[in-house]
Amino acid sequence: VTPQKINGVVFYRAELGGKQFIVNENGQKLGDKYDEAGNPQNINGRISFRAGLKRKKFIVNEKNEKVGGEYDYVGNPRDIGGKIAFRAELGGKQFIIIEQGEKLGGVYEYVSAPHNINGAIAFWVREGIKYFIVNEKGEKVGGEFDAIGDPRFIGGKIVFRAKQKAKWFVLTEKGKRIGDAYDSVRDPENIGGKVMFWAFQGGRYFIVNEKGLPVGGKYNAVSNPQDIDGRVSFKAEEGKDQFIVNEKGEKIGGVYEYVSLPQSIHGRIAFWIRKETKYFIVNEKGEMSGKGYDEIYSLGSLPSGRVYVIAKEGHTYIKEVVPDLLFTDSYL
């Protein structure tokens, strides 16, 4: 059971005598006793949870009222624009219920959980052998496909991945493709309000930008794109070499036996590398720390463009300032 702090009060799920219920930090019970109860969810500072009684499932709000009706199945309530939305099933059909207790869209063979698209709801649906996205208005957007990914909100529009005739691609709610069709793609990522995604084609891996072009080259392997203060960066591998690529497609520093994923330190790229038996930190300029460690676990920002490291030396775990590297615009 995971306690949840909601509007300054801690709530948690408890069980007694075979019944489950929600209580707060003062021991006060919210709602009734149920055959089952989900963990409390924070809906814009209001508590809501799923519950079941006598084989019927439902959602309970902060007023101890049922949202909608009783169903054969409900998912956890989600916060979409400060209001409750959840997935439900009744009589073998699935649908989305909003806070007013109304269905959004129609009833389908299968629906995903509702997703927050800039405060509005979107979800994907399966009907027969076809998949599609439904928006806040209950409209089908982008077309029908053989498979589909979760909708994302990027650059003011719904963006998602889909499969058609054994090829994957990324497209918008208007049906416009970004890039080409590929052997495989992952869900698009929001990098500074622009669409970026991982793709695989013809045995090579690469990152595609919002113009549909590869960032840098095509490699033996790449990580998901990482957001570095609105700029893209990623880890890539070629043969036995590993390296970090920036938004211009350039390698940062050199090639190494191992590199970590890039991360943002003061809005600049930072990562660590392995050189022989030691690990070193590298900044966006490609400069490497003078001191090496047996292992590095994480980096963190400090004032004045400095960084600290949590690492291991021998049998000792340490946290210390890295004295010889800076991560600031003026320095780089």
Key attributes of the depicted protein:
332 residues; 0% helix; 40 strands; five-stranded antiparallel β-sheet; mainly beta; 61% strand
Q: What class would the helix/strand composition place it in?
A: mainly beta
Q: Any idea what the radius of gyration is?
A: 24 Å
Number of helical segments?
A: 0
Biggest β-sheet, characterized?
Answer: 5 strands, antiparallel
Distance between the termini: 47 Å
| Beta-strand fraction estimate | over 45%
Please tally the β strands and state the result: 40
**Shape, per Cα inertia axes:** globular
Q: How much is the average pLDDT? A: 95
Please mark out the parts with pLDDT under 50 across 5 or more consecutive residues, or reply none. Answer: none
Helix content: under 10%
Write a structural description.
The protein has strands spanning 4-6, 9-16, 19-24, 29-34, 36-37, 41-43, 46-53, 56-60, 66-71, 73-74, 78-80, 83-90, 93-98, 103-108, 110-111, 115-117, 120-127, 130-134, 140-145, 147-148, 152-154, 157-164, 167-172, 177-182, 184-185, 189-191, 194-201, 204-208, 221-222, 226-228, 231-238, 241-245, 251-256, 258-259, 263-265, 268-275, 278-283, 295-301, 307-313, 316-321. 0% of the residues lie in helices and 61% in strands. It is mostly beta strands. The chain starts with a strand and ends in an 11-residue tail after the last strand. Strands 5, 6, 7, 8 and 9 form a 5-stranded antiparallel β-sheet that branches. Strands 10, 11, 12, 13 and 14 form a 5-stranded antiparallel β-sheet that branches. It contains no helices and 40 strands.
